[in-house]
Design brief:
The protein is of the alpha+beta class and about 350 residues long. About 25% of the residues lie in helices and about 30% in strands. Strands 15, 16, 17, 18, 19, 20 and 21 form a seven-stranded mixed sheet that branches. Strands 7-8-12-10 form a four-stranded antiparallel sheet. It has a three-stranded antiparallel sheet with strand order 1-5-2, with no helix packed on it. It is elongated, with a radius of gyration of 28 Å.
């Protein structure tokens, strides 16, 4: 692509680089108007610019083999999302070299990060910006934006970028439709239901429902194990009246007593450290940390969202959450990380 100033008389067929004021002669009123940047100049545009007194204009001209910005952006978007319906994404019409990728369903965003990095390394003029991998989205959310920065780009570069990022972005929708919650109490008094309300909210925003009436049992292995064995949900969540402090503590032991396994305890996300994940009869089990009673973002959100959407959550995946795992402090936090004391 060639870019630079040219005499107005030689600008027909070129792409106007900057909006310019010209004389609107067709309406016979000599009104001023702006020719938008990115306009492919016609003979009438050239005459209007000359009538306004412009002698030179800055334009772009495509070289043989170049693609115009909108055509390039469209091709790139279609390569990254070759099957929009299956990926639960909608591609907007290209405008000014930009195509947006919009979520068509709730879920988490699956991104092949290496492919996106390779795509962005092909040419500074070919770019895509995305949400972080595995970010939860709702229908209508912007997931990514593709922008061809220049007015045209080499077709060979477009072809290279296309090949590097085929199918690199999709929305992973929930694979489970129902979850159960079992709570424990440490006294005869049943605690408030804020934890159940918070979990119900988290489930509903992914289109998952919370099963049955509220279940609260004493904070002992036997009653908790019995409740686990009777849980109906495809995913089972446990919210204990006393925080789980060890992989051999009450709630993990109850999972084992019920015939399940505990895969992992503790996570490098704060708030949310005291979480465990396991399995019972082929169903995921999540031991929620106490901060899950709050609707504020915490480590339990990341684990719950991924489990519901069928994304693997094992020791390696949880360990990787530490980068970016220092979440926002809240005044309600019982033991703040920072204190003036």
């Amino acid at each position: 692509m060639k870019f630079g100033p040219v005499p107005v008389a030689e600008a027909e067929g070129a792409i106007l680089a900057h909006a310019m004021r010209a004389t609107d002669r067709p309406y016979e009123m000599q009104l001023d108007y702006l020719i938008p940047k990115g306009t492919v100049l016609t003979a009438a545009h050239v005459a209007d610019l000359a009538a306004e007194g412009h002698e030179r204009v800055t334009v772009a001209r495509l070289d043989p083999g170049d693609l115009a910005e909108d055509a390039a952006a469209t091709r790139l978007a279609q390569a990254i999302v070759p099957a929009p319906d299956a990926a639960h994404l909608r591609l907007t019409q290209a405008k000014a070299g930009r195509v947006n990728l919009i979520a068509e369903a709730a879920g988490v965003v699956r991104i092949t990060a290496d492919a996106i990095a390779a795509f962005n390394a092909v040419s500074p003029m070919i770019t895509i910006a995305t949400l972080p991998p595995l970010r939860r989205v709702a229908a209508g959310d912007l997931v990514a934006t593709i922008k061809v920065i220049s007015y045209g780009v080499a077709g060979a570069d477009v072809a290279r970028a296309e090949a590097l990022a085929v199918g690199a972005i999709a929305v992973q929708t929930p694979v489970h439709i129902a979850a159960s919650l079992i709570e424990t109490r440490v006294s005869e008094t049943t605690p408030g239901d804020k934890g159940r309300r918070a979990l119900k909210m988290r489930l509903e925003r992914l289109g998952v429902w919370l099963t049955g009436p509220r279940v609260v049992v004493p904070h002992h292995e036997a009653p908790l194990a019995a409740a686990l064995a009777q849980a109906e949900g495809e995913v089972i969540c446990i919210l204990t009246g006393s925080a789980t402090s060890d992989i051999a503590d009450t709630a993990p032991e109850a999972v084992r007593k019920a015939g399940g396994v505990v895969h992992y305890f503790g996570m490098p996300v704060d708030p949310g450290n005291l979480l465990f994940v396991g399995e019972l009869g082929g169903r995921p089990v999540i031991g929620l940390p106490g901060c899950a009673r709050s609707p504020a973002l915490n480590g339990a959100d990341w684990v719950l969202e991924r489990v519901l959407c069928g994304v693997p959550v094992g020791p390696a995946e949880i360990a990787a959450m530490g980068v970016g795992g220092l979440l926002k402090e809240t005044p309600a936090r019982g033991r703040p990380r920072r204190s003036d004391d």
